[in-house]
């Protein structure tokens, strides 16, 4: 029965996240927010909503391995698997402006998380305390401010604005999408976490392992769907923005919020897991050639994902 609940909840998560993102994009376009912000910020944050609710529920229930492992695992999955698969489908454009800001910022917050996790700053018993969480939330606010500032300084092209103006999405329909998507997302994530934990206990698998693999991959499926769809439409910059934006949001906002719910202590997430997350965030910069991630780069990232999961299985 738990497996059926898990499957139904997973389907509901994907549907509700898609509905939520669609509504958010409609609202953004109605109020003339550019496609750059929609892709890098709105869609990135929207597809991270499953991680937000799963990790928040984990923190609320005292399951810190779920709260932290979900984020670490999701970020690894996002880059090595999703971006790897996306590049295999269609080489991903990585403009110089993204390589100068979004990618380094993502690497930076990943390193900050490692330092916070091992008490580099405060030396207290808490893994990520409330003060640490405020630091992460401040980084999130900084990222949002700079993103919107850069977008405004570039301006929105007249052709793009004309496209957005005709026709304008129905505001009430968009609001209903957001509300319904959010409601279903909260409920389905609750059942997904409960059934995943039950299955983990039944098989004698640790919460840390189940959170960094099954839950992390499951809650990252919206990013996978959005990125592959964008690649098939040859809008690979949207795919890259979605992944990088999601990873930054996961660390700064989600863990920042979770630490305010309950200080995140203990946990079975190892130093190796954090290092793999940081290496994964560096890979797009290392593998980019002539302003894009080729299919070879995608294959390398996917191979790293397989190797990491083989390591996890070997060390259960």
Rg (CA only):
19 Å
**Overall form:** globular
Main β-sheet description: 2 strands, antiparallel
Class derived from helix and strand content: mainly alpha
| Helix and strand run | HHHHEHHHHHHHHHEH
Extended strand count: 2
**Strand order of the biggest β-sheet:** 1-2
Measured as a percent range, the helix fraction is: over 70%
Strand content: under 5%
- Overall pLDDT score: 81
Explain the overall architecture.
A two-stranded antiparallel sheet has the order 1-2. The protein has 14 helices and two strands. Helix 1 (2-30) packs antiparallel against helix 2 (35-46) and helix 2 (35-46) packs across helix 12 (236-261). The protein has 316 residues and is mainly α. Helix content is 80%, strand content 1%. The model is unreliable at 156-166 (pLDDT under 50). The longest helix has 33 residues, at 171-203.
């Amino acid at each position: 029965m738990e497996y059926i609940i898990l499957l139904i909840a997973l389907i509901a998560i994907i549907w509700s996240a898609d509905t939520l993102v669609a509504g958010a994009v409609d609202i953004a376009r109605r109020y003339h927010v550019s496609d750059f912000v929609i892709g890098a910020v709105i869609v990135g944050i929207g597809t991270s909503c499953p991680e937000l609710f799963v990790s928040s529920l984990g923190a609320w229930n005292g399951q810190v391995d779920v709260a932290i492992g979900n984020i670490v695992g999701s970020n690894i999955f996002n880059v090595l698997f999703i971006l790897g698969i996306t590049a295999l489908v269609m080489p991903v454009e990585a403009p110089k402006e993204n390589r100068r800001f979004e990618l380094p910022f993502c690497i930076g917050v990943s390193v900050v998380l490692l330092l916070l996790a091992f008490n580099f700053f405060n030396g207290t018993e808490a893994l990520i305390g409330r003060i640490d969480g405020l630091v992460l939330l401040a980084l999130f606010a900084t990222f949002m401010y700079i993103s919107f500032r850069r977008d405004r300084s570039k301006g929105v092209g007249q052709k793009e604005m004309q496209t957005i103006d005709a026709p304008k999405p129905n505001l009430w329909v968009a609001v209903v999408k957001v509300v319904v998507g959010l409601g279903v997302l909260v409920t389905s994530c609750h059942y997904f976490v409960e059934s995943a934990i039950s299955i983990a206990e039944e098989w004698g698998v640790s919460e840390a392992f189940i959170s960094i693999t099954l839950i992390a991959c499951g809650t990252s499926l919206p990013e996978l769907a959005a990125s592959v769809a964008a690649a098939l439409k040859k809008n690979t910059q949207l795919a890259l923005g979605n992944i990088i934006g999601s990873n930054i949001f996961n660390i700064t906002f989600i863990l920042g919020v979770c630490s305010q719910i309950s200080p995140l202590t203990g946990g079975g997430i190892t130093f190796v897991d954090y290092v793999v997350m940081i290496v994964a965030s560096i890979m797009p910069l290392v593998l980019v050639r002539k302003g894009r991630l080729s299919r070879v780069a995608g294959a390398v990232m996917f191979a790293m994902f397989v190797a990491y999961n083989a390591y996890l299985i070997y060390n259960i």
